[in-house]
Amino acid sequence: MGDRDNLILELRGGTIGETNYQSSSEELFQNQTLRPILKLQNDLFIESFKNYITKYKNDFYSLTVEKKLHYIDNAIQRDIKFRNALKGMVISLFTIAEFQTYTKNSSALNKRMMNLLIERLKSQVQLFEQTEA
pLDDT for 99-126, tens place per residue? Predict the structure, then answer.
């Protein structure tokens, strides 16, 4: 394993969530790779979404909580450019071996990645309050 891979693994920390011998390869990848990266990159995802709100729909701040949650869903599911930017923030912290695993099943792993990210942002919706500049 190269220096880059070792640094990334050290930076990310260990597995988040339970895994056992019955876990699917996708579940293992989710808990060993995706969850630690999402946790590490959380502040960046928050800032990225705040920037998205400012850039595209400043009226987000006037929405009800329920509509804000729907907005988060919609932004990530339908805005391909934004979705790809978020995906890049995750993929950039894969080791070489993880990237090779990812490329073999990218469709299913992308779905897991985006669902986890959507739930993470929704659970922190209170952080998306308008601040006075």
Answer: 999 999 999 999 999 999 999 999 998 8
Average pLDDT, the chain: 90
Contacts of 50 (CB under 8 A, 6+ apart): 128
Which residues, including other chains, have CB under 8 Å from residue 24's CB and lie 6 or more apart? none
What CA–CA distance (Å, rounded) separates 40 from 10?
11
Q: What is the largest CA-CA distance in the chain?
A: 52
CA–CA dist 118, 17 (Å, integer) = 18
User: Structural domain boundaries of the chain?
Assistant: 24-127
